[in-house]
Every structure is written in C-alpha cells, then in structure tokens.
Amino acid sequence: MILEYAEYIGIAAFTFSGFYIAVRHNLDLLGIFILSFLTALGGGIMRDTIVGIAPISLTTIYPMLLVFILVNLLILLNFHKKQEYDRKPIFIVADSIGLASFSISGGLVAINSGYEISGVIILSFITAVGGGILRDILINEIPYILKGGFYAMVSIIIGVIIYILNFFDNLEFFYISLLFVFGVILRLIAFYKKWELPNIYNKKF
Fold it and tell me: Rounded distance, CA 106 to CA 117, Å?
C-alpha cells in the first residue's frame, strides 16, 4: 500500500515536471505527451527492469491513464501559455514531491527484492532521476542531475534512510510519511539556498 501511494504521487508530480519542460522547448502535442510519459514513468520502468519484474506502468492502465488525464487537464487550464516554468513555485514543489516519492518507491522495491544498501541506493536514485535523464537526452540537453547541484543527493539520502528504517524494522506508514516530508523539504531548501556539490573546476590546485 505504501509503495502504491509513493508510486502514484511520483507519477503525478513528474507529469507536471515533464509537461513544463516540454512546453518550454515548444514541443508539439505529441512531444508534450511523450516527454510527460517519459519523465513520469521512465524511472519506474528502468527500476522494474533491473529487479526483473514486469513494469507496473505497462501491466496496469492506471499510471498511463493518470499521465494522460493530467496532461489534458494542464492543457485545458492553459498552463502551456505560462512562462518561466522551471522557476515558479508550483514547478519546484511538484518536482520535489516527485523526487521524494520516487526515491521512496525505488527504495521500497529494492527492499522487497532483498537488495542490500548499495542496491537500495541505486534503485532509489534510478527511480527518482531515470525519467528525467531520458527526458533530457530526448531534448538534447545534459541531464539535469549532472549539473543540478544537490538534486540527486536527495534521492541518495532517502535511499540510505530507507535502508536504515528497514534494518530497524521501522518501515511503517508513519515513518515513510515523515521521510517523504523530509525529502520534499530538503529538496526545497537545497534549491532556494542554492546548495551545490563541490566542483573541481572552481578549485585551484
């Protein structure tokens, strides 16, 4: 049940993210749908392929239906006519929610598959940023996680915490909910405080 909640929250949030990026690059209607689908579902498909299970988004209609409905709703509400999407609070919050949700769902899938800490971290990471990587490659940009400061570290931190919670048998809804809130707040703080990882090109040797 917790995994399903995390999965669908992530899909919904990253649909917004993919939609905004597609509109910013002036893609046509098909391009908007493709980029939204990739951003929302790509990471989960990559995760499920790694653990050797049929991707959830391909075995049930609800994930793709959710993306389809949300994209149409955004178009009907004229969100495609707004400007500077990637700096607006609604975009940042949606992206933060997606990042935290998918990091948690990736970690939970890894735990359910019997993975150790490295596997939990990797699946949290891939689920959270895999769709964004596919999206950026498709629009011929350097993936955001390679230049996005602290962004990817949030998913890694969540993966570590998921493993620790499981180690102490505390993978309960209450603690997962706290972790979700923590992940969203951490991402927002990192964005607005402009946290960045060390850059060797700014160092003098």
Answer: 12
E strand residue ranges, the chain: none
Q: In whole angstroms, what is the distance from residue 199 CA to residue 55 CA?
A: 36
The packing angle between helices 117-138 and 29-51, to 10°, is: 160
- In this structure, how many other beta carbons lie within 10 angstroms of the beta carbon of residue 10? 28
Q: What is the pLDDT of residues 58-86, one digit of tens each?
A: 888 999 999 999 999 999 988 777 656 55
SS3 of residue 56 by DSSP: helix
**Residue 161: left if φ>0, alpha if ψ -120 to 50, beta else—which one?**
alpha
Write out the two tokens for 141.
Answer: 């940009």
Reported in sequence order, the residue ranges of 96-181 that DSSP labels E, i.e. its strands, are: none
Q: 195-202 contacts: CB < 8 A, separation 24 or more?
A: 195/149, 195/150, 196/149, 196/150, 197/149, 197/150, 197/153
**Is-contact 150 190, C-beta < 8 A?**
yes
Structural domain spans, the chain: 2-198
pLDDT digits (tens, 9 = 90+) for 118-146: 999 999 999 999 999 999 999 998 888 88
In angstroms, what CA-CA distances link 119 with 13, 47, 105, 144? 24, 11, 13, 22
Q: Which token pair is 203? A: 């160092």
